[in-house]
Amino acid sequence: MPAAAKLLRAIIMGAPGSGKGTISSRIVQDFAMKHLSSGDLLRKQIHDKTAYGLTAKMYIERGDLVPDQVMVRMIMYELTSIHNSSWLLDGFPRTVEQAKALLRDQPIDIVLNLRVPFDVIIDRIKGRWTHPQSGRIYHTEFNPPKEPGVDDVTGEPLMQRDDDKEETVKARLEHYRRLTHPVLQFFRNKGMVEEFTGNYSNEIWPLVHQSLSTQLKPLQYTRYE
Ligand code: ATP
Ligand code: MG
């Protein structure tokens, strides 16, 4: 019998538009980790009209954070149900209080911080145009429509979502920086943060893969054994 596999407990952090979703899904695929996203969990609780969901809804609709006490209890409960697996936490902790509560309860092995220059993120998001009727997405640089401002299939005009406009994106990024900085600093002071810098997910992913491979065996390799 092989020795019991080591479990990895990781946190992923990154600004909106940093490719956190892409990297997270590759991690959970390649390393058989459970993905626990606080935003997804909250949306599910709201949909299921649980007590957590009803409380959280009021805050989220106002654009506020859900209170630490509620978040901590909800996340800790979810973590107990996956304590036999490796996991990747996403969206939590968002405050130093949440970070402290988490560390009191769980041994965290690593905090992965995705660093994509804000200029790059802004360029990426502000070039995005959609055809609202079909959901088709274009990008002025990476995936331009045949004719500027017009949907390829229907010939109808393309629109830009309000939250994809440059000013809005800048505000969201600043908000993220202000809010997350203390949490990152808290983990950095404990020497827990590994930084991954790049302009594209395809640049960042190999670095993340390599780093996690030193602690966990990627699934791919077991297939070839
Ligand atoms: P992203 O652009 O990364 O998706 P988001 O602002 O949409 O960011 P989600 O993670 O999808 O954030 O969460 C949606 C909302 O749920 C947040 O705006 C916040 O109100 C609440 N929320 C999520 N995680 C937390 C947390 N750890 N603490 C407090 N509130 C949270
Ligand atoms: Mg979201």
From TrEMBL:
Annotated spans, NMPbind: 37-66
Residues that hold AMP according to the record: 38, 43, 64-66, 91-94, 98, 161, 172
One Pfam family, short name: ADK_lid
Kinase keyword on record: yes
Keywords: GTP-binding, Kinase, Mitochondrion, Nucleotide-binding, Transferase
Catalysed reactions, as listed in the record: a ribonucleoside 5'-triphosphate + AMP = a ribonucleoside 5'-diphosphate + ADP
InterPro entries, A to Z: Adenyl_kin_sub, Adenylat/UMP-CMP_kin, Adenylat_kinase_CS, Adenylate_kinase_lid-dom, AK3/Ak4_mitochondrial, P-loop_NTPase
Comment on protein domains: Consists of three domains, a large central CORE domain and two small peripheral domains, NMPbind and LID, which undergo movements during catalysis. The LID domain closes over the site of phosphoryl transfer upon GTP binding. Assembling and dissambling the active center during each catalytic cycle provides an effective means to prevent GTP hydrolysis.
Record family assignment: Belongs to the adenylate kinase family. AK3 subfamily.
Protein name according to UniProt: GTP:AMP phosphotransferase, mitochondrial
Gene field: LOC101845638
